[in-house]
Amino acid sequence: MTFRKATKEDLPEVIAMLANDKLGSQRENFKIPLPKKYYDAFERINNDPNQELIVLVDTTQTIIGTLQLSFIPYLTYQGGIRAQIEAVRIQTTHRGKGLGKKMFEWAIERAQEKGAHLLQLTTDKQRPEALKFYQSLGFKATHEGMKLHFKKTKSE
After folding, report:
1. What's the predicted TM-score (pTM) here?
2. pLDDT at position 153, please?
């Protein structure tokens, strides 16, 4: 198995994984052809040196997992870099084989290579099994996270 940067051609499989659960199916718009918004987002991610959209592929180059790492430079921690991991998904046919752990091990190593002093994540409270998994990897719930969702305009 190999980790590599995602390409534009990978997007349909990546978006299919993001949409393939209870929460993702409510917020993603997976269809072929993919809506242009996904390609626009990919270009923004791909052109930003602080963003890495990654896929995990098997020996046949079939995508079996994905994640996104964001590197956030900031002034606290003496001008530190904070890494954020998002959108971690494994193809349903490959779950339960330890690949999620391998993906996190890779992400932790990558964050350290980029000079981050911590790796953070959020998880939806509707995913208690994910919370237990993250805790098993050493993540600790040290802060209370909050979000403010904005209403979409009719053109969105």
Report:
1. 0.90
2. 60
